[in-house]
Fold this protein.
Amino acid sequence: MDRTVNHDEIAQLLGAFALDAVDPGEAEAIRAHLTECPRCASEVAEHWEATGLIANAGVDAPAEIWDRIAAQIDTEARTRRPAPLHLASSSASRGAPATVRRRLVWSAVGTVAAAAAVVAVLLGVQVGRLDQRVGQLANASRHSGLNQAVQAALLDPSAQKVTLTATSAGSTVGGTSLANGARAAVVVVLPDGSAFMLNTGLPPLGADRTYQLWGVVNGRTVSLGLLGNRPRDISFAVNPAAPVKVFAVTDEAAGGVVRSVHNPVAQSTTA
Amino acid sequence: MLKLETASDAALMVAIARMHEPALAEAYRRHGGAVLALARRVLGSADLAEEVTQEVFVDLWDSPERFDPGRGALRTFLMTKAHGRAVDMVRSESARRQREERTVRETAVSGYDIEHQAWDLAIADQVKAAVTSLPVEERTAIEMAYFDGHTYREVASILGQPEGTVKSRIRSGLRRLRSALAQHGVETAWTEP
């Protein structure tokens, strides 16, 4: 169907669309229209409400199918492996030869003296910020509003949701076994840049340790905050104009680090 | 701690987004039967219907953010997903051939068996009342499209009616149905029985 069909022509098709009874071309034109026409979108939602009811046959859900669903989601968690991290260092120039690149984020920096000096300066500044940030996060956690904000974010269709799965380095973390490929955490990022991390499997660490959240932005690895040794829901912010490509969590000495020398215990998978 | 049996669907969805598997199990317990029945109804095959049901709930687990609570009830969302998937399957080539044969048989024997379509569903009395209160031509068009996976064009061709007529009957029938259901106080949201 021609994309230029007008509102009235689309509107006549909304009933059939709600029943999945239009041709693929029509369906595409209608979907495009629905994104910009709240009136039609709300009519379709109402049609769906009605069809959902007439189809309601009220039989019991068979346990056998649940067993298959449970088996499938467990398998998915096991087979989903984190993508290998091959990230350029913040000190390595863009487009550096592959041999210069290292799994750097998590390895030591500073082959260039100037860069090392910059890092030294940043160290003081950033640790200060991190300490402040931990305090803010702790306050936010105690504040009942965080839970509501997290819930709203989880249900926001425009939110980007990223799963962090355990790496092989995570298998010994906290003296607890965290199965390689297990879901360790979920990061939710809203379009305005507000973001949350939910702990779904990171085990508690000793009192002298902390988890630290990292993100790769424009090829640079930046700290997104300290999570403490028993992470719960954490709020943080990212720049919406500079999307975070990869999220990772490391296990660090309490207080955190500016650059980690540890392999991440969990990181995001590539879709 | 969330008590799953009495949690609202919205609370279940939050727990599902947090990868709390028992919450998915509870959502399945509440809505899996209806999803399965609809898929079976459209597909006419128990095996394919189970496949659709499995897919719908695994998708809910993988992409809970696709459910927008502002747009309607969880049950409605799941039924819509299941129907779309079942219709895709039914329209695949091999299934289409079988279905065309079935349609020819049905229309040849009894015209279209509307009463059967409406009544063999074990649905609530109010819903039955609302469905049967529809003008028969609206009900026929809706049921042929929804339960048999026909497009409105196919419905028009089977019934020998203009496409525009079928289109508008489906739309006005759905509107009538919704207001009848609302009058009877039928709700789509899950409530503790």
Residues 86 and 92 of chain B are 10 Å apart (CA to CA). Chain B is about 75% helix and 0% strand. Residues 21-43 of chain B form the longest helix (23 residues).
